[in-house]
Amino acid sequence: MNHKENEIREDYLKKVIDYVRREVRNSDLAHRFDHVECVAKIAKKISKKEKVDLEVVLVSAYLHDVVSRKESRNKPHYVASAEKAREILRKVGYNEDFIEKVYDVIVEASYESWISGIRPKSKEAKVLHDADLLEAMGARGIARAFAYAGAYGSKELGEVNFNPENPPKNTSHERLVDSSPISHFASKLLHLRNMMLTQSGKKMAKEKHKFMVRFLKQYKREMMQNK
Asked: pLDDT band for position 2 (50/70/90)?
């Protein structure tokens, strides 16, 4: 079926969503269906200000984490997810041109691609990139950081032994999982606002970043009171 940029084939999209819902049931708590649904909603909001193919954006958003890090084995999880997306989209009935656009968006938008030097080329990839990072910030980002740490065996919550307003250099590329969820803020989450590529993403990141800083300051105060 031919695809027009302004068109969203709702019957196709529903099949994609149903596939994803089933596929991510066993993912860690930070990467289940509520995560991909939130990314899709954020991406849709950003897309209102950008001239993009909304169907490519939404399909890519729903499929970007369809394969978990534990399941991806010897390849980056975003590559495994992009390959799984191809498989799912062929079953649904999308044409090859559309499928390859989604594949490229998933790979280019990934945070892991960013820290390895790959930058999003298309506007669709930039929108998904921002949406995915925004879902790692703010209140949900805080909740997901603790959920992810627990899923990967973190032994402690951690201490705020850094300045939230001037965190140390990003070292998230050096490890899969930080020593604690609190250290994950210093290594990654407090640096995300500077990675936004769209104007809408930059605006949304400001408030989410401030919320995380406030949380860390309060966390530190409470830890100090208990000593």
From this structure: low
Give the Å distances, CA to CA, from 153 to 72, 90, 157: 18, 36, 11
DSSP secondary structure code for residue 135 in this structure: T
Angle between helices 54-63 and 123-134 (to 10 degrees): 40
Q: In this predicted model, what pLDDT tens digit does every residue of 67-83 receive, in sequence order?
A: 988 787 788 889 999 99
pLDDT tens-digit series, residues 155-192:
999 999 999 999 887 766 555 567 899 999 999 999 99
Helix (H) or strand (E) holding 121, with range, is none
Report yes or no: 63 and 16 within 8 Å, Cβ to Cβ. yes
Q: Which is nearest to 148 in space by CA: 177, 171, 189, 172?
A: 177
Which domains are seen in the chain, by residue range?
A: 1-128 (1.10.3210.10), 136-227 (1.20.58.1910)
Tell me how far apart the alpha carbons of residues 15 and 38 are, in angstroms, rounded to a whole number. 18
48 Cβ partners below 8 Å, 6+ apart? Answer: 200
* Torsion sign, CA atoms 108, 114, 116, 119: positive
Helices (H), the chain: 10-23, 33-47, 54-63, 77-92, 96-109, 111-115, 123-134, 138-151, 181-187, 199-225
